[in-house]
């Protein structure tokens, strides 16, 4: 039985936390220049969080071990770039291909009659979603044969798909569309890190809602026991395809936003290393934990891009030791940290638990000595 | 025997390579009956279940549910040459029908498993609720955006009612696998009932239970049969369970039907006794 009072308290605390986050983001955007490392880390980490959560939906919640994430990100990134480069700049970008085949820009189209700010941002969001849809469409096609495979074989097939796609996008004959192996650039970007955080927050919230819906439970049933799931009337082929398509949709959006963050786009950056990086985030955060993926992607990106930089450049935590702290030492330390995490948290930092507002409220209630009724909706949350 | 059986198997043969696991099995379950399928270990009982539920495609034969053929098969390809069962040509001109298990469950046949197959990361409540997914009308968009709240609420209420009836409500938020063995069996039956079946297949429901638990389970099975208007086909090794609670019994050995009839007839049949106890060589 759910306690009405505690539900209201939870929603108040939840809204308060969101407002605090929004305020912090606004302050960061207002006071820090857009090239500041903190802003960059927030942008990149939020993109990684989205992609990691989308991978977790597939690997952690449906039990399909797929390594095609970089391929779907590539599709989303290219779709975003191709459809959003301003027309005036196309001749410069596609200089070897006579300005390319496509001569319109969705964000530009929207900004013409909805105004510079609203129209442009709306156009960006719609183009990102278009990128997601393209990735989802390819996921549908590739899913038809590939999802009949199980475990490692599925991983190999999807990894192969991603690698083929990367080579295909560099094909000179597709140059007027993808610019071959040259850079795509000059596409619009959100002006602020808040844009990233809010948009990605909405997408992750949608994945959370999906996971907790009846479809999410069906996915988990497939992960736990395929035979039982099938015997209880869950259509395996349909639900696996659904999970694959949804995961790829969000990976596509994540790819588009990663392109946006990087400023220039090249197929070469979507190597399988990127998939492994995301897999690392998923595994370290806990397979089957969305908050785990989010927290770990922020920790991972922050330490890789910012906090541990000093290990490569001579000064770390005020210690100046150019002999030890030289190029490559950062990766050695990161590997060590990963090994420690794997040894002491064999199920990842969060396991399959989640942070929730309910958990936070309970924690503070306990902290201030208030007694919560024992079965006021305890569902194993932290 | 009734003219309108709910389930009818006709000449069902299941051959794996050269091994004929089920050979020319014909049986029927009439509405409202509890029918038991017995036989020594390895007789092909679970294989017969798997042929009915679509886990295996039989090599030959027909399975009819409520008068409609749901599985039709005849030896094809390589099996044509090595087929060792009977009636090979009987269905050769019929189009084979080979549904997946989920379609069969949607028709109204639910099952439990010999080795319990509960979803282990889910709570008791979620296990039953997830089985209701099949009946949900919402699509993935309305489910994500929580547009079908009325249906969600209805599903949760039906699940709680089902749990309350099985005395499982106090374990609502416990992990399914943390329940004691007997309750896990009950939960598996509750999960099968959540799909609103017309026919329930129970694969060794009393396995690992003591005589008292077995007796309780039997009473429970009769009770749910009455309440939901079910027909039940079950596999069981506990003979007192089979004799006390089933209306009719089919006994099979080495895949072949050796005897069928009421418990009295079957328990006194020499072939059944031989199959269970063995026949000495010098007779």
What does this structure look like?
The complex is a heterodimer of chains A (382) and B (283). By secondary structure, chain A is an all-alpha fold. Chain A is built from 16 helices and 2 strands. Among the domains of chain A are: 1-31; 40-269, no CATH class. Helices cover 70% and strands 1% of the residues of chain A. Chain A has a two-stranded antiparallel sheet. In chain A, β1 (315-316) and β2 form a beta hairpin. The longest helix of chain A is centred in the first third of the chain and has 41 residues, at 106-146. The radius of gyration of chain A is 22 Å and the shape is globular. With 283 residues, chain B is an alpha/beta fold. Chain B folds into 2 domains: 1-108 and 198-283, Rossmann fold; 119-196, no CATH class. A 6-stranded mixed sheet of chain B has the order 6-7-8-3-9-10, with helices on both faces. In chain B, a hairpin with a 2-residue loop joins β9 (248-253) and β10. Chain B is globular. The chains are: A mainly alpha (382), B alpha/beta (283). Chains A and B meet through α8, α9, α10 and α11 of A and α3, α4 and α5 of B.
């Amino acid at each position: 039985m759910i306690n009405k009072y505690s539900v209201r308290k939870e929603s108040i605390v939840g809204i308060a936390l969101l407002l605090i986050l929004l305020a912090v983001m606004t302050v960061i955007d207002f006071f820090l220049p857009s090239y500041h490392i903190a802003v960059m880390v927030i942008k990149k980490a939020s993109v990684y969080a989205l992609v990691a959560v989308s991978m977790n939906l597939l690997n952690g919640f449906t039990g399909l071990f797929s390594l095609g994430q970089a391929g779907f990100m590539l599709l989303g990134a290219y779709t975003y770039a191709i459809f959003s480069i301003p027309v005036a700049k196309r001749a410069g970008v596609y200089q070897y291909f006579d300005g390319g085949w496509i001569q319109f820009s969705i964000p530009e189209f929207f900004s013409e009659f909805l105004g510079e700010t609203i129209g442009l941002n709306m156009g960006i969001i719609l183009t990102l979603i278009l990128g997601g849809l393209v990735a989802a469409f390819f996921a549908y096609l590739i899913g038809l044969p590939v999802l009949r495979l199980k475990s490692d074989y599925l991983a190999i097939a999807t990894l192969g798909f991603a690698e083929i796609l990367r080579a295909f996008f560099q094909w000179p004959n597709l140059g007027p569309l993808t610019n071959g192996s040259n850079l795509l650039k000059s596409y619009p970007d959100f002006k602020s890190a808040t844009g990233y955080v809010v948009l990605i927050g909405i997408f992750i919230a949608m994945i959370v809602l999906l996971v907790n819906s009846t479809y999410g439970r069906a996915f988990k049933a497939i992960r736990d026991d395929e035979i039982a799931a099938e015997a209880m009337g869950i259509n395996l082929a349909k639900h696996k395809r659904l999970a694959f398509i949804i995961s790829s949709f969000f990976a596509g959006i994540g790819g588009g936003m990663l392109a946006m963050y990087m400023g220039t786009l090249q197929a070469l950056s979507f190597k399988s290393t990127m998939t492994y990086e995301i897999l690392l985030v998923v595994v370290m955060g806990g397979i089957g934990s969305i908050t785990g993926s989010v927290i770990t992607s922020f920790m991972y990106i922050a330490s890789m891009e910012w906090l541990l930089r000093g290990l490569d450049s001579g000064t770390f935590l005020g210690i100046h030791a150019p002999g030890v702290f030289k190029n490559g030492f950062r990766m050695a330390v990161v590997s060590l940290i990963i090994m420690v995490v794997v040894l002491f948290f064999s199920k990842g930092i969060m396991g399959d638990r989640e942070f929730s507002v309910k958990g936070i409220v309970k924690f503070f209630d306990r902290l201030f000595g208030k007694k919560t009724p024992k079965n006021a909706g305890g569902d194993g949350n932290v | 025997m009734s003219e309108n059986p709910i389930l009818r198997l006709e000449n069902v043969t299941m051959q794996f390579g050269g091994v004929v696991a089920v050979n020319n099995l014909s049986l029927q379950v009439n509405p409202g009956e509890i029918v038991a399928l017995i036989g020594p270990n390895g007789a092909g009982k679970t294989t017969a279940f798997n042929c009915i539920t679509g886990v295996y495609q039989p090599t030959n034969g027909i399975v009819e549910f409520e008068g409609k053929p749901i599985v039709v098969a005849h030896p094809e390809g390589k099996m044509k040459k090595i087929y060792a069962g009977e009636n090979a040509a009987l269905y050769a001109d019929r189009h084979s029908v080979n549904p997946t298990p989920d379609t069969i469950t949607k028709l109204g046949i639910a099952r439990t498993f010999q080795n319990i197959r509960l979803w282990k990361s889910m709570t008791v409540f979620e296990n039953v609720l997830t089985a209701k997914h099949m009946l949900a009308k919402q699509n993935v968009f309305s489910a994500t955006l929580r547009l079908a709240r009325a249906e969600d609420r209805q599903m949760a209420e039906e699940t709680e009612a089902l749990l309350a009836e099985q005395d499982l409500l106090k374990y609502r938020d416990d992990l399914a696998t943390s329940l004691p063995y007997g309750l896990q069996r009950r939960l598996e039956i509750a999960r099968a009932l959540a799909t609103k079946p017309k026919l329930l297949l129970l694969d060794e429901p009393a396995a690992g239970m003591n005589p008292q638990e077995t007796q309780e389970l039997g009473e429970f099975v009769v009770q749910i049969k009455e309440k939901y208007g079910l027909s039940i086909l079950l596999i069981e090794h506990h003979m007192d369970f089979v004799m006390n609670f089933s209306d009719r019994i089919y006994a099979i050995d080495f895949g072949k039907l050796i005897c069928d009839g009421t418990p009295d007839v079957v328990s006194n049949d020499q072939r059944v006794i031989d199959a269970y106890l063995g026949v000495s060589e010098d007779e």
